[in-house]
Amino acid sequence: MKRRTLLLGGGVLAVAGFAGYRVLSTRRALRGSAVIAGVSSGRFGAESTAEQVTEGLNLTDKTVLVTGSTSGLGLETMRVLALRGAHVIGTGRTKDKSAAAMQGLAGRLTPVALDLTDFDSVVACAETVHSISGTLDIVICNAGIMALPELEQVNGLEKQFVTNHLGHFLLVNRLLPQIMEAPQGRVVTVSSLGYRWAPPEGIEFDNLSGERGYDPNKMYGQSKLANGLFSLELARRLKIAGSSATSNSVHPGVINTNLSRHFAKWKQLAGSLIGWTFMKSVQEGAATTVYVATYPKLAEVSGYYFEDCNAVKPGGRMEDAALAAKLWATSQELTAKYLLRDAHGRSA
C-alpha cells in the first residue's frame, strides 16, 4: 500500500489536521479537482520526483530565476534545474544565504539577494537579474511564508499578502520584458490548496491590513488565492500582448518543510514523527513546479492550475477572472511608484 493511501483510514485523517491542513492531502485534492483532458501530464503523478519529470531534458540554453532557493522546495527546484544544465539564479533574503545554499551543488548557479517585503530589494533584484542575462526563460515564484500566529504588517499591509503575492507581483512585472524576449518564457507561481481557506469573497480588499478578524490560515489562504489569480490574469495579459510566454500556477502538495516553522511546537513535532505517512517528500513536492517550468509539451499551455503534474480545475474563486483583474489593478496601485521606474531604477 502506498504511504499516502493510509490517509483513507479515518484514524489518520484526524492527524492530517496537526499542521492546519485539516484533510487537504494531495490525493484527496486531486480527486476533488477535475483533471483537464488534453493538457499533457507526461504520465507523471503524485509520486513523481523533480528528477524524474526532467529526465532526458537538456536545459543548457535556459536561464532560470527561482525565488526562495535556500531551503525546501526552492532548493530542490534549483538543484534539479542546474543538474539539467540550466543557469539558475537563486534568491535568498541575503546574497550570503543564497550562496551558502548553493555550496556543493553542481551546475551554473548565481546567488542574488531578494527580500520580498522590501520593494527596494525587489527592484534591486530585478536589476541584478537584468545585468546577468538579457533574456529570462523561466521565473519560478516559490518563496513564501505561512500562517503567522500573530498579525504582522509591512507598511500597513498584512505580511503574508505582501511576501507571497505583492513582492512576486512587482518582481515579475519588472522582469516581464526579459521574459517576453525569451524564445518561450514561462512564469510558474507556487500557490497552494490552502487557497480554499481564503475568505468567502476571495480577497478582502477593504482589509488588506489584516486588522479585522485576523486568522493565520485565512490570511495565508488569501495570499495563495492571490498567487493563483495573479497567474491567471498574467496569462490573459500575455495572450493579449501576443507573447509566446506562459503563466501557470501550481499546488506542490503537502510537504513537511520549514514553511511550517510558525506552527506550534507540538504540530511541528507531529509532522516530524508521522508526516511521512501522508506527506510528499521534498523531491516529490518540487516535481509539479519543475514539470510545468520545463516540460516541452507545455510550451503553449497557459492560464492553468496544476496538481500532481496534472492541469486541474480548482473551481470557485481560483477561476474568477473578474476578481483576478481587480486584484491586478489593486496590486498595481500598491506598487505603483516602483512599477513606474524604468529598467535602470530611475523614476519615469
| Percentage beta strand | 5-15%
Tell the overall outline.
globular
Backbone structural class: alpha/beta
Mind telling me the CATH superfamily name? NAD(P)-binding Rossmann-like Domain
Task: Compute the separation of the termini in Å.
Answer: 60 Å
CA-based gyration radius = 19 Å
Spans of at least 5 consecutive residues with low confidence: 1-31, 266-277, 343-348
Structural summary, described in words:
The protein is an alpha/beta fold and 348 residues long. 40% of the residues lie in helices and 13% in strands. The chain has 13 helices and 11 strands.
Brief overview, please?
The protein is an alpha/beta fold and 348 residues long. The protein has a single domain, classed as NAD(P)-binding Rossmann-like Domain (Rossmann fold, 3-Layer(aba) Sandwich), CATH 3.40.50.720.
Q: Which helices and strands, and how do they pair?
A:
Layout: H1 10-15, H2 26-32, E1 34-35, H3 50-53, E2 63-66, H4 72-83, E3 87-92, H5 95-102, E4 108-113, H6 119-132, E5 138-141, E6 153-154, E7 157-158, H7 159-181, E8 186-190, H8 216-240, E9 246-251, H9 265-274, H10 282-285, H11 287-294, E10 305-307, E11 310-313, H12 321-334, H13 336-339
Parallel strand pairs: 2-3, 2-5, 3-4, 5-8, 8-9, 9-10
Antiparallel strand pairs: 1-11, 6-7, 10-11
Helix pairs in contact: 6-7, 7-8, 8-12
